[in-house]
Amino acid sequence: MSEADCEKVAAWERQSAHDLEHARAALAAGHCGWACRAAGEAAEGAIKAVLLARGGKVLGTQNLLLLLGRARDEAGATVPDDLVEDARDLMQLLGVLSGQCTYAGVAPYELVSRVQADGAIAAAERIRAHMAGALTRRGAPSPAR
After folding, report:
1. What number of CA atoms fall less than 13 Å from residue 40's CA on the CB side?
2. What confidence score (pLDDT) does residue 129 get?
3. pTM of the model as a whole
4. Cβ atoms within 10 Å, residue 98
5. Residue 142 DSSP class
6. I want to staple 43 with a disulfide (CB 3.0 to 4.6 A). Which of 86, 108, 127, 134 is the partner?
7. CA 134/CA 113 separation, integer angstroms
């Protein structure tokens, strides 16, 4: 991997860590919707870091299921079923927050509970941990500098 690619991998990993930190801060402040959004971003960044590190293409998608499938198929990463379920749970919450599931007089953020936001953060943490392991298992340089 070129030095430029190593820097891109490190940048995605840093962004992922930053997004997870933001998710925790948002939850602590009682902003459950923002916590879920940031958790989704954290998971996305972690997957994109692995895609880049292993020669996959990082396209503009935020679809976590698609990204995990590409990490498996294009980059040879192991993607266990429980990680797919975590991605699915995150995407369902993100769908609610994007207004895809609205009810008259109810703002999308009002549909997300603290328990759901806590679960979103936990899912993002599991995805990040697994993707970090995928970086080290393949001998890719650790992006955490």
Report:
1. 24
2. 96
3. 0.89
4. 11
5. P
6. 127
7. 32
